[in-house]
Specification:
With about 150 residues, the chain is mainly alpha-helical. The chain is built from five helices and two strands; from the N terminus they run H-H-H-H-H-E-E. Strands 1-2 form a two-stranded antiparallel ribbon. A hairpin with a 5-residue loop joins strand 1 and strand 2. Helix 2 packs antiparallel against helix 3, helix 2 runs antiparallel to helix 5 and helix 4 packs antiparallel against helix 5.
Length: about 150
C-alpha cells in the first residue's frame, strides 16, 4: 500500500475502514474478472484469495454478543458472498463475479451512508464503533491503525 493510502486510512473511523475493505473486495473481484478474460487461472485464484481473505477478516471481527440481529445479518451476507465468489471462481464466470461485485457494492454503499451520517452527527473524537472488533493495532491514544 502506498504512503498516501496509509496516511488516509490512519485517520479513518472504524466505519470508514469497513468501506475501504469493501472497496478492496471489489477491486480484487474486478481483478478476477480481468484474469478470466485473459484466461489466467493463477491470477484469478490469487485475486479470489485476497477477496476471500477480506471477507473472512470482516466476518471474524463481528461481535455477535453486542451486534445482535445486524451482526447475524452481516454474518449471513459474508457467508453468501463467500459462496458466490467460490462458485464464480470454480466456473471462471465473469458474469457471476460481476453479480457478486454488485452485491458487495450495495452493502458498501450502505456502510458509506452510515459513515457520512455518523461524521455529520458526531465529532471525530466521539465516533461510535460498529459491532465488531477493531482493526489493526491500537496506539497510545486508543486510535486504531490499519495494517494491510
Amino acid at each position: 500500500m502506498d504512503s498516501y493510502q496509509q496516511h488516509t486510512l490512519k485517520g479513518a473511523s472504524a466505519v470508514e475502514l469497513v468501506v475501504a475493505l469493501y472497496d478492496g473486495i471489489m477491486r480484487f473481484l474486478y481483478a478476477a474478472c480481468d484474469a478470466v478474460d485473459r484466461g489466467d487461472e493463477g491470477a484469478r485464484r490469487a485475486a479470489v484469495k485476497r477477496a476471500l481473505d477480506i471477507i473472512l477478516h470482516l466476518q471474524a471481527r463481528l461481535r455477535m454478543d453486542i451486534g445482535g440481529s445486524p451482526a447475524r445479518a452481516l454474518s449471513d451476507f459474508y457467508t453468501a458472498i463467500f459462496a458466490q465468489i467460490l462458485q464464480a471462481s470454480q466456473r471462471a464466470s465473469k458474469p457471476r463475479f460481476l453479480h457478486t461485485i454488485d452485491c458487495v457494492r450495495n452493502m458498501r454503499d450502505a456502510w458509506r451512508q452510515v459513515a457520512q451520517e455518523t461524521a455529520a452527527i458526531f465529532p471525530a473524537s466521539m465516533q461510535p464503533t460498529p459491532a465488531f472488533d477493531s482493526f489493526g493495532d491500537a496506539d497510545a491514544a486508543g486510535r486504531h491503525r490499519w495494517n494491510a
